[in-house]
Amino acid sequence: MTGALSHIRVLDLSRVLAGPWAGQILADLGAEVIKVERPGTGDDTRHWGPPFVKDAEGEDSREAAYFQSANRNKQSLTLDFTQPEGQRLVRELVSQCDVLLENFKVGGLAAYGLDYASLKTINPRLVYCSITGFGQTGPYAKRAGYDFLVQGLGGLMSLTGRPEGEEGAGPVKVGVALTDILTGLYATVGVLAALNQREQSGIGQHIDVALLDVQIACLANQAMNYLNTGVAPKRLGNAHPNIVPYQDFPSADGDFIIAVGNDGQFRKLCEVAGLPQLADDPRFASNKARVAHRGELIPLLRQATVFKTTAEWIALLERAGVPCGPINDLAQVFADPQVQARGLRIELANGLGSRTPLVASPLRLSETPVQYRNAPPLLGEHSEQVLQQHLGLSAEQIAALRQAGVV
Predict the structure, then answer these.
(1) Do 179 and 151 meet the contact criterion of CB atoms below 8 Å apart?
(2) What is the pairing mode between strands 99-102 and 127-132?
(3) What's the pLDDT tens digit per position in 196-245?
(4) How many CB atoms lie within 10 A of CB 351?
(5) How far apart are CA 129 and CA 208, in angstroms?
(6) Does domain 246-328 have CATH number 3.60.21.10?
(7) How far is CA 315 from CA 137, 261, 263, 312, in A?
(8) Other beta carbons within 10 Å of 288
(9) If you ran DSSP here, which 8-state letter would residue 361 be given?
């Protein structure tokens, strides 16, 4: 293993998405990631289907496609740490690990002696990352947190959906569990920062990452719009609160996006659209004016865009230097020549005798590139390997643990 993190070993006790997403990023960067799962059932998302991965005969397996999205390059170890022997084995592994990821409820692992305060006495260099819905402190700390709930509570859904008064108006969640994904990314950043600090201090630390905190932090300009005005932003559909025109427009055969970022681009748009007079109209000559007169400008542009196809508009606008693009479904995404050129669809051989299609990592490191070592593991696929290599257990000892339901 020659990845940037090939010297790092991670014990991943997390389930579902935010924690596993962080674990997969670390694994893609070369870390050895041991995913600890419940015997018999494993990570909840193993069963979140259909769809399921196909086996060698082309039939549905019991491995949900959802699980595959966040568990590449990991080893699966089944271990019941509600049992004392399971707890002992986790502690032995912790003594050999650099990072622990977990997303249990606040205090949930303390009952098993697997909380940070307990484990740092075993391994003071341990970087222990806790991912929860609401963090380790505050009145909501003990609540369970789910992406959908946090998108609502954290304000994202108040900004997403058609404007009030339009048909179909109302709050809408983002089409993927974006808060979970962003939390996984922030957790990864925190782990990398703590590992870097450990190089200087020699000791690890506890990282407290909360979905709600991340969701609010990622409101970005919308949060700043509110904090600077005291006025809560409203839903604008596909429009932008600070830039106009920056939204979808109808074409002769569908819809496409125009994303004008400055007044020069707006003038070019007007020329291509056969409406050069709009660029000199005081209502539209500056972005500030266009934001104020959005309701007058957008209908004028929409009346013009319906007379050409999406492909025609994109060809014309790209030549003029006006940012624009199609609205693709996923079939079109993976057929796109740029997506194919970047190799964003990969396949890895799996333990079912077939191959699992996956989305590639977006990280491109020149000296330590991402390596796709193995597909997301079957439940317990590496239990014997991990217990033998890292803990020195014999086949007889492992068999006894299986008989006792610990492994």
Answers:
(1) yes
(2) parallel
(3) 999 999 999 999 999 999 999 999 999 999 999 999 999 999 999 999 99
(4) 18
(5) 6
(6) no
(7) 53, 18, 21, 5
(8) 11
(9) P
180 is catalytic: yes
Please spell the DSSP secondary structure of 183-221, one letter per residue. HHHHHHHHHHHHHHHHHHHS---EEEEEHHHHHHHTTHH
Contact 270, 304 (CB under 8 A): no
Q: Give me the amino acid identity at 152.
A: G
Rounded CA-CA distance 35/71 in Å is 9
240-265 per-position pLDDT tens digit? 999 999 999 999 999 999 999 999 99
Q: How far apart are CA 140 and CA 152, in angstroms?
A: 15
Radius of gyration of the chain (CA): 25
pTM, rounded to two decimals: 0.94
Q: Which of 386, 382, 377, 379 is nearest to 349 (CA)?
A: 377
Terminal CA-CA length for the chain: 27
- Three-state SS sequence of 300-312: HHHHHHCCCCHHH
CA–CA separation, 68 and 375 (whole Å): 8
Residue linked to tokens 């979808």: 248
Residues contacting residue 137 through CB under 8 Å, at least 6 positions apart: 208
User: Domain 9-217+342-403 classified CATH 3.30.930.10?
Assistant: no
Domains of the chain: which residue ranges?
9-217+342-403, 246-328
Instruction: Name every residue whose Cβ is closer than 8 Å to that of residue 179 and which is 6 or more positions away in sequence.
Output: 18, 147, 150, 151, 154, 156, 211, 214, 215, 218
Q: What is the pLDDT of residue 1?
A: 61
Per the CB < 8 A criterion, the answer to whether 147 and 210 are in contact is no
What are the percentages of helix, strand and coil residues in the chain, rounded to 5?
40, 15, 45
DSSP state of 372: -
Burial class (CB in 10 A: 0-12, 13-18, 19+), 99: buried
pLDDT under 50: residue ranges of the chain: none
Nearest partner of 380 among 75, 90, 83, 92, judged by Cα: 75
Angstrom distance (rounded) from CA 15 to CA 74: 13
Per the residue annotation, which of 60, 180, 213, 329 is the catalytic one? 180
Question: Which letter does DSSP use for residue 113 in this model?
Answer: T
